[in-house]
Write a structure and sequence with these properties.
Radius of gyration: 17 Å
Helix content: 25-40%
Structural class: alpha+beta
Number of helices: 3
Order of helices and strands: HEHEHEEE
Shape: globular
Number of strands: 5
């Protein structure tokens, strides 16, 4: 069995850590998704990070706002697409789009089946 790969430095950014911590505190989980994962696996530069949470986005956004007020950090939560389940976290230099995972979509795998005509 191979040893698990350590997370790269970009995955330890303060915004990423804040989102992971918030999800756990609310009883959920967060994941890094999209192009950052693709580029990391392809050994290409990471230009942006998107994340997903399995909690209502309004709940997560409210929690993040309260946390940033209490800790007096410069992190901002922007309602960029709240109606569609997305907010943007920003520290003034870096931005992370945070989206609520959806449960109203049926997943279909488009893998060819060997032997099918």
């Amino acid at each position: 069995m191979s040893e698990p790969q350590r997370l790269p430095a970009w995955a330890h950014h303060q915004l990423v850590a804040t989102i992971f911590e918030a999800a756990v505190q609310l009883g959920g989980e967060a994941r890094i998704v999209g192009g950052a994962v693709r580029n990391w696996l392809a050994d290409k530069p990471i230009t942006d990070i998107d994340m997903a949470v399995n909690l209502p986005i309004a709940t997560v956004a409210d929690h993040l706002r309260a946390t940033t007020r209490l800790t007096k950090t410069r992190l901002k939560v922007l309602d960029t697409g709240l109606a569609h389940g997305t907010v943007t976290m920003s520290d003034g230099r870096k931005h992370i789009e945070l989206t609520q995972t959806r449960d109203d979509v049926v997943r279909v795998d488009f893998c060819p089946v060997i032997g099918e005509s």
